Amino acid sequence: MGSLKFLPIIMICRGGILMSKNRNNTAALILIFSICFSLFFLIYHEHAKSKTSSVYEKIAKKHDIHYLIVGDSIGRGAGVVNRSLTWFSQWEKEMKKSYQINLTRHSVVQSGATAYEGLYLFKKAKTPPSTDLVFLIFGENDRKYMNEKQFAYYYEGLIREIKTKYPDAELITITESCLEQDQFANKIKKLSNHYQANHIDMRIPFQHSAYPIAQLTADFVHPNGLGYKLYADSILAAIAKGLENGKQAAVLKEPILYTKELKIKEFTQYNEINDLFQVKNGYYIANEKGARITYPFNGTNLGVKVLKHEQGGKIDVYIDNQFVRRISTWWPIHKNRVLYVTSDLPAGEHKVTFISTGTKSVHNKSRYPNIQLSSIVVYE
Question: Which residue ranges traverse the bilayer (predicted)?
């Protein structure tokens, strides 16, 4: 019986020990959980931070980068047979050498494209979900079809669409070495400054080069390997300067001309057509002079979607019975293209008529000037 007196004390002691052990276990679990949570937070925070770091910060930390090219034939590196001599291939090589990083390239490019067509292609393209850097390269083709204000409108549209999709990406705008029209170059510079993009005027290094233009280009327009080396070196220098100055990415500021996002509308339904046009595989096709098709549309601008190819002919375009321009549909390869027609039309209803001229490009070696239209394009 005497030993029973101590039983409650023993049980209490054991309970105390057990409670002490439980408290220790709980404390240990809390400590482990706290450490794990802290590590997870640090890793997540660093990962999130790396996603929003500027391209300059990523390069400084030797992080690999993704970049996108939106541009015309110079954007795609036309002018060299050996693709290792394009401006982007030479630039990538120098970036790897200078900063020990890898670069992944994405492209939305089309030879002969204007900023108008570039806007269409960018909005339709399956671009990557994120990117660190975007190159914008237009101007030389635009000056053939529109004035500088019209060009600036679509160029700004591209800047805003790019920065809306990629708010953290840096933007490098390039004035092409072949662009002789200062009014177009000035628009590129003004918009670049407004959005705090990294602007490179490639006319300057070409003018300062010891080599004449004939030795820097394949055709006095498209650079050759030596000309593209000037592009690569200029971009490398602009990146180095951005690193040195702690430059941040371009910003989406208040618009100058492009005051609202444009939506692309395509119309295939005509209201008049003569029997010289035939319908096949979604195209209105003609080989003879006088083939005519008319579409109604509502808007202030117009483009036309055609199939350009080796047998392409020429079309005269009339809007509201007034001649606007002549379009060639010749191209060395089969390619669907969205060609700029006009801007600055009065708001409201219009009609556009396309008439085959029966003539062909000097490059067309076939017997017939073939026309293939699929739709008209309006930005609303």
Answer: 26-44
